[in-house]
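PROTEIN FOLDING TASK:
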Amino acid sequence: MADNGKLRIDAAAEDWRLAQAFVISRGAKTEARVIVAHISDGEVCGRGEAVPYARYGEDVEASLNLIKSCHARSREELQSAMPAGAARNALDCAFWDFEAKRAGVAVSELAGVPEVRPVETAYTLSLDSPSAMAEQARRVAHLNILKLKLGADGDAERMRAVRDARPDARMIIDANEGWAVDALSGLMAVAADVGVELIEQPLPAGRDNVLSQVQRPVAVCADESALTSSDLGRLVGCYDAVNIKLDKAGGLTEALTMRDAARAKRFKIMVGSMVATSLAVAPALILAQGADWVDLDGPLLLAEDRPHGLAIRDGWITPASPDLWG
């Protein structure tokens, strides 16, 4: 535990069981392991949640140690005191919560967002056989936006099967860096044919410059290639949109900066998150105001959410209660 003058910083890991296995091209999991940071002055306590992600070289223990050894006394100091990533995100969001509670105002007011309105989230279908993914899609007939996890042999058949099962749905696909360059044009043509709106990260980060040399009949969104605002310059011409996540950016502070910088470069905006509880999603709702696509379905994938969790009805997420965050 760090003691920064009158501020005390601590963190702990929590495990949240998923409603069913969550499968992407890199593997499967049955629980969400999150970290929760706390900042307190003895009267007011702020919280923030994040998900360390192995794809970015993170793990839970190292992230907890980073938080517990942090001596930043403010959110502003934090930006240079810790690198971007899940640990800084948990602490940054805890600072926002703490500052808002101490000032007696909403985080949205501190962030200069006049009103936080409900947003409609995509719902993620785990990678599976075409028939199984079609059945997943039918089971959520009340949800309007589907995000298909792809990145394996048979992706064309998966897209067609889900479209046949849900001709009414809006569709996003996420290959998680799993497509080969020689398959790219054919799979993008299928995506266009079945009415996909957006393709996330079809090629591995660092090997995606070929996207500037091919026709893109569907908008392509950078995810693993777009961590912070410093990445945006090299993505111009390769991507049409960027997926901004608090865990990648290192908190709401940098994520808001990244959103404004992305808009200035004429990227469309997707706001996403890892699989986590409502405490992780609540700050992202501020970021999601005015976004082109929202993918904040983490709480819907859990067997049980935390107390005062976000209300999500037919895919629409209602802004958080102050009892949860902000």
